[in-house]
Amino acid sequence: MARKKPGRDARTTTVQRLESLAQSGVKQLGRRDRKPATKVAPEPAAANPPQAPAPKKAAAAASVREPISSSTSSSGVQTPATDLSADTLPIIQAEVAACTQCDELASTRTQTVFGVGNPKARLCFLGEAPGADEDRQGEPFVGRAGQLLTKIIEACTLQRSDVYILNVLKCRPPGNRTPLPHEVENCRGFLDRQLALIQPEYICCLGAVAAQTLLQTETTIGRLRGTIHQYRGIGVLCTYHPAYLLRNPAAKKDVWEDMKILMAKMGIPLP
Ligand code: SF4
Q1: CA–centroid distance, residue 261 to ligand 1 (Å)
Q2: pLDDT 10s digits, 4-55
């Protein structure tokens, strides 16, 4: 009997995986080597020392490289174990575009809304879910609340293209209702994988859903804001959602106080 050549199973598995990705519309796999980081936010000049030391990116990176194990959602859909060494944002985006784990959302969405911005950003903004404008355009935070977020980012001396913006849910809940627990659970794996690849130093959670989902807590946003929390070694600041600020402009000063805390931690001087 012919002996099986070593490595043959591995090659077969690789070929099958590439064929599967090709069928999903993935035409090119990105390099997983990270170039020397092009920091989008200016490092503090020696003459302007940071108000607080920025945490070591390497420490955060080591933490977020923990493997993500497989899980079964409440709807019974198995989320496969993730081999982060082969994961890329285009691969996750293709999986999101084909995802139908949440029956209602998958049948009512115009398109999925994955995320936008610098894939090597030091700072991510995490919102709740796409709204009508985002569902139509396929990009997070492009409606009125998004325009206010852009103003907040620019007030921090940054541009939208400097940061990465994403939501907990990748599909719009009908009527902009609050995401249901099983929907958050279904989409959680995509979020964790996105953040593991981007490896930001800081995440700014916008609103209760983002904050409570990321930090796995039921503490209110009012009690979470104003201090730095931790998610897998990444600093997390929670503040009010821009949509809340549109309804309650008086809370803008609280958000600005939160952003000052975050910018000080990142070593970004504000005017
Ligand atoms: S919200 Fe997330 S888990 Fe649910 S269908 Fe959309 S992509 Fe899939």
Answers
A1: 33
A2: 444 445 444 444 554 544 544 444 444 444 433 333 333 333 333 333 333 3
CATH number at residue 207: 3.40.470.10
168: which 2 tokens? 């907990």
Which residues share a beta bridge with 122? none
- Report the 10 Å Cβ neighbour count for 107: 10
In-domain check, residue 53: no
Residue type, 133: D
Query: What is the 114 CA–ligand 1 centroid distance (Å)?
Result: 10
Ordered strands of the 234-239 beta sheet:
116-117, 164-167, 123-127, 202-206, 234-239, 228-231
The pTM of this model reads: 0.72
- Rg over alpha carbons for the chain, rounded to the nearest Å, is 20
Q: Which domain holds residue 116?
A: 58-266
Question: What is the CB neighbour count within 10 angstroms for residue 119?
Answer: 16
| Cβ atoms of residues 118 and 157 within 8 Å | no
98 Cβ contact list (under 8 Å, min separation 6):
24
Of 29, 80, 73, 62, whose CA–CA distance to 196 is shortest?
A: 62
Q: Among 78, 93, 105, name the best residue to mutate to test ligand 1's pocket (greatest count of ligand atoms within 8 A of Cβ).
A: 105
> With a cut of 70, which residues of the chain have pLDDT below it?
1-85
Flag whether 239 is in a domain.
Answer: yes
pLDDT value for 25: 47
Alpha-carbon distance values, 153 to 61, 73, 108, 149, 164 (Å): 24, 34, 31, 6, 11
- Asked if residue 170 has its Cβ within 6 Å of ligand 1, the reply is yes
Domain count, the chain: 1
Work out the angle at residue 226's Cα, subtended by the Cα atoms of residues 189 and 157, and round it to the nearest 5 degrees: 85
